[in-house]
Amino acid sequence: METKTDRFMQSIPEIIRTIPLTHYILLSSALFAIGVLGVLTRRNALIVFMAIELMLNAVNLLLAAFSSYFSDPAGQIFVFFIMAVAAAEVAVGLAIIVMIYRNIQTIDIGLLNKLRN
Amino acid sequence: MTPVIALSLFGIINLFLGFTFKRQSLQVVTLLFIICSMALTAMDWNHEYLWFGDMMKTNNLSINFSLIIQLAGLLVVAFSNGFGKDEVYTQPAEYYAILLFSLVGALLMVSFQNLIMLFVGLEILSVAMYVLTGSDKRNLRSNEAALKYFLMGSFATGFLLFGIALVYGSTRSLYISGILYNLSHTAPESLPSFLYAGIILMGIGLLFKISAAPFHFWTPDVYEGAPTIFTMFMSTVVKTAGFAAIYHILDVTFGGFQKNWIITVYFITIITLILGNISAAYQQSAKRMLAFSSISHAGYMLLTVCANQPSTSSNILYYSLAYTLATAVSFAVLMVVAEYQTGRTEKPENFDALNGLAKNNPSLAFAFTVALLSLAGIPLTAGFWGKFFVFTDMFNKNLTYPIIIAVLMSAVGIYYYFKGIISVYFNSGEIEKIETSFLFKIALWSACIGTLVLGIYPTLLKSIF
Amino acid sequence: MIESFGYVLAFLVAGTGFMALVLTLARFIRPNRPNDEKLSTYESGEAPVGNANVRFNPRFYLYALLFVLFEIELILLFPWAVVFGDKQLAAASENWKHFALFEMLIFIGILGLGLAYAWVKGYLEWEKPNIQAEDFKSPVPPKAYEKFN
């Protein structure tokens, strides 16, 4: 009954566990920090947007790692939810960026300073 | 449970009603929908139960929060007036539907028992608000506000999620009950140190949403750029739901770790109070002043979160209700005056645009005054008791210095709120009689009377909360 | 731990070395007679026109949006499918299958309503560009062109 694929799938958590948990935490913290830096330093709205996606994916990685370490599916389900919600955000965010591009022909966020004064 | 399902259904129905209904009838239908779901919410009173696979919990606290949020939604819809008369660019059915959807998000945020639901609720609320902020498509200020809100909002969501992931990693559960169980059954020394980072990051993510300083920099721009009716929604519903979530996370879930987050939150609270009030005093635009005032009110509400007394939840409820009523009224008056002044003065949202409002529109002027007095915390209004309960909480906890700062800052608050009252009553200006719809008048008067009644009989609702 | 990364290094070195070796070898033994046809991007005969950095028409945006919506819906179907196909759960309760199927139908139904909304609103219509007739009046009658065409 149990096929080779099944056995492989079941061994995935063990394979993941061969790397210590600290490494996953460090990796996703590094990715998250890169994302934060990207948001804070880049001026192009699309790149800022991609940096935010990087932050979300760092979280996804961390959740998946924790989830297989604990053999608890809740973390992976959370990853699905984050993906779905991120897609909704992408839809709205791109619409906003397109709308701005139509009005001012640029997506440089440095030029958006109408509200400052 | 039922109101969440009902509101989602109503939202979808509203989308399709837009094909046949006129904007006035859509407004009435939406009002009926919200009243219906408020009734459904109230029916659960005194029934405590878990639902959606134990992910949500209804109890009296969550019902109270839900009712305040829906009341705010009701006021916004009543003030909305079908979103002006522009036939081509405004799509009232969609706006009403999105308002209903974001109410669903807010309801999830006040009754979550699982961190997934906190995230989903927050996102339903925020994504809907991004759309509404940018709904004035041809207006560059609205566009800019939408982009800022969107980028800052998703940035904050990233922090919240990273915090949730770290908390999940250290407590092995996403359920609040599971987290509490694991925390109480593990020795504090054996908890991984990134738990504390997780708590702080979650706090930061939520503090972004309620615009506490130093995460407030998006607030004035977004509040000013968004169409006023949606600014009203943002400053009432989002703030109330955000505080419900902060209370649930910081006080209920991680109340035992108070010594780990209290310093950070104190710092944030005091900065919020000082920055919000001092900057508000400098503003020429009344709408921007109200934005900074919403920051400063977040500071007062954070004080009671810091105190973490048994009465904290009821204080947050009372403060939210008082703040919601007063803010809704002040934004509503500002909205109709700005609509009238557009084309007549350069900056229709400045204090100057309100000059001489009392001469021909005594009722609008009176409502505006009551609302500003309540926001300033003058006795006989609801805002006074809101502040009073918060300060009592702090006093019980022997937190003297924050009280001194808070009292000083409310004195500053009196200065800038009175600026509005002075321009309405004492400055000379020409404003003709402004016609408002019947629903607008009812909503305005009931919110005003609510503010006064709560100010005179605070025990009326304090006994329920 | 760190020494196990030695394998990675060995792979990197070996891979780079192998590629360099093979490419240099090939360079010496292959004939080198380029012509225009061989150097073109698509040897199939498709002539590349213009810059690759063209802008897409924003009309595609709505379609992309609807695609993303249904694609993401699929993600949420995976955990559902795992639970739905679980034999133990199906054996435990008779109505399990119907209940799970019904729930999924509600979920897809809501998305379908969204699609229906976009349809009724007319967002699925492909907006054809409105070609305006030229107001230029040519002194040459149209018949004169037919002679040449």
Automatic annotation (TrEMBL), chain B:
It is found in: Cell membrane; Endomembrane system; Membrane. GO terms for molecular function: NADH dehydrogenase (quinone) (non-electrogenic) activity; NADH dehydrogenase (ubiquinone) activity; quinone binding. It is a multi-pass membrane protein. Its main location: membrane. Its EC number is 7.1.1.-. InterPro entries: NADH-Q_OxRdtase_suN/2, ND/Mrp_TM. It comes from the Bacteria. Residues 114-410 form the NADH:quinone oxidoreductase/Mrp antiporter transmembrane domain. Keywords: Cell membrane, Membrane, NAD, Quinone, Translocase, Transmembrane, Transmembrane helix, Transport. Pfam families: Proton_antipo_M. It catalyses: a quinone + NADH + 5 H(+)(in) = a quinol + NAD(+) + 4 H(+)(out). The chain crosses the membrane at residues 28-45, 65-83, 95-128, 149-170, 190-208, 229-249, 261-282, 289-310, 316-338, 364-386, 398-418, 438-460. GO terms for biological process: ATP synthesis coupled electron transport. PANTHER family: NADH DEHYDROGENASE. NDH-1 shuttles electrons from NADH, via FMN and iron-sulfur (Fe-S) centers, to quinones in the respiratory chain. The immediate electron acceptor for the enzyme in this species is believed to be a menaquinone. Couples the redox reaction to proton translocation (for every two electrons transferred, four hydrogen ions are translocated across the cytoplasmic membrane), and thus conserves the redox energy in a proton gradient. Belongs to the complex I subunit 2 family. This is NADH-quinone oxidoreductase subunit N. It comes from Sandaracinomonas limnophila. The gene is nuoN.
Automatic annotation (TrEMBL), chain C:
It catalyses: a quinone + NADH + 5 H(+)(in) = a quinol + NAD(+) + 4 H(+)(out). It is an enzyme of class 7 (translocase). InterPro entries: NAD(P)H_OxRDtase_bac/plastid, NADH_UbQ/plastoQ_OxRdtase_su3, NDAH_ubi_oxred_su3_sf. It is a multi-pass membrane protein. It holds the Pfam family Oxidored_q4. The keyword Membrane applies. Its EC number is 7.1.1.-. The chain crosses the membrane at residues 6-29, 60-80, 100-120. GO terms for cellular component: NADH dehydrogenase complex; plasma membrane. One of its GO terms (molecular function) is NADH dehydrogenase (quinone) (non-electrogenic) activity. It comes from the Bacteria. The keyword Secreted does not apply. NDH-1 shuttles electrons from NADH, via FMN and iron-sulfur (Fe-S) centers, to quinones in the respiratory chain. The immediate electron acceptor for the enzyme in this species is believed to be a menaquinone. Couples the redox reaction to proton translocation (for every two electrons transferred, four hydrogen ions are translocated across the cytoplasmic membrane), and thus conserves the redox energy in a proton gradient. NDH-1 is composed of 14 different subunits. Subunits NuoA, H, J, K, L, M, N constitute the membrane sector of the complex. HAMAP family: NDH1_NuoA (MF_01394). PANTHER family: NADH-UBIQUINONE OXIDOREDUCTASE CHAIN 3. Belongs to the complex I subunit 3 family. This is NADH-quinone oxidoreductase subunit A. It comes from Sandaracinomonas limnophila.
